[in-house]
Amino acid sequence: MSKRILIALTSHAVLGETGRSTGFHLGEAAIPWEVFTAAGYAVDLVSVAGGNPPRDGADPADPSQHRFLTDPAIAAQLAHTPTPDALDSSVFEAVFFAGGHGTMWDFPDNPALARLAREIYERGGVVGAVCHGPAALVGATLSDGSYLVAGKRVAAFTNDEEAAVGLSGVVPFLLADRLTAQGATHISADNFTAQVVTDERLVTGQNPASARGVAEAMVDALTR
Fold this sequence. Notes:
By secondary structure, the protein is α/β, with parallel strands linked by helices. The protein contains eight helices and ten strands.
């Protein structure tokens, strides 16, 4: 395999019936991109619907976000992301599912995203996700039909964090509960503090503060 990592982004732009905008969390893509590229990996982007995906969590003062948005290769990819069904998973060593509340609508039970996760994982690659990005693991199965998260320890945005941001009644389900229902053991830390959990070749993180740690743990898993 070439040294390539895929970052998957949501295409969902509206927070339920609130009329508020959402999308992929910019920091949760930018910081992992920075870690991956520093480790010598090329990074490709994909979004559920293709095209230019909606963004959330922009911080103009964040140098990682600035570098991400002004990198010519990333800017070109963001303008025209492919859809996951158009990709050959065999060219990637890992897939990373960035968060953002939009993922709660278009990541779960998505056969194209699940295929990428399954094929990369079963070929010996690494699957990573942070914050709401583990929504891509909801419904994702291995070739034997078992849930990818079954029997594994995971981190994801917690019920308490969802309540703290006032969106428990807006998101279609509570992510930690759904992952637990599919056989995962959800490991939480204090609200909005960094929490990274690695179980075999699955690396997950709890919130935006965990994005760098997840990316670093993924690189570590890839180099073992």
